[in-house]
Amino acid sequence: MTALPNCPECNSEYTYEDRDLFVCPECAHEWMENEVEENDDKLEIKDANGQILKDGDTVIVIKDLKIKGSSSAVKQGTKVKGIRLIHDATDGHDIDCKITGIGAMKLKSEFVKKA
């Protein structure tokens, strides 16, 4: 049995085949196998050093980042484990993560490097 691809829209792993289409039950997106291969180059998210990031990677913050609406900040050198990439981010925040001591937040890939 071959592994089915994750949904290119929401990255869900619960996809299934319906004739010649793949279907995502979470966001109802339908696509053909060759569409994913053509769009793979567009979906790449790179860190500050140009390395390609993937879901689950560990990254290190390269600059102190102020947290909007708070007096605290994410300090340079903070290690963030298990990131999740957001491919259709409109505001540039293309990494979703949880930072120990701070909580869930979104980061821009230009302020992190792959660990």
TrEMBL record:
Coiled coil: none annotated. Residues 45-115 form the Protein YjdM C-terminal domain. It comes from the Bacteria. Residues 4-31 form the Protein YjdM N-terminal domain. Pfam families: YjdM, Zn_Ribbon_YjdM. InterPro entries: YjdM (IPR004624), YjdM_C (IPR013988), YjdM_N (IPR013987). Belongs to the YjdM family. NCBIfam families: phnA (TIGR00686). This is Alkylphosphonate utilization protein. It comes from Cerasibacillus terrae.
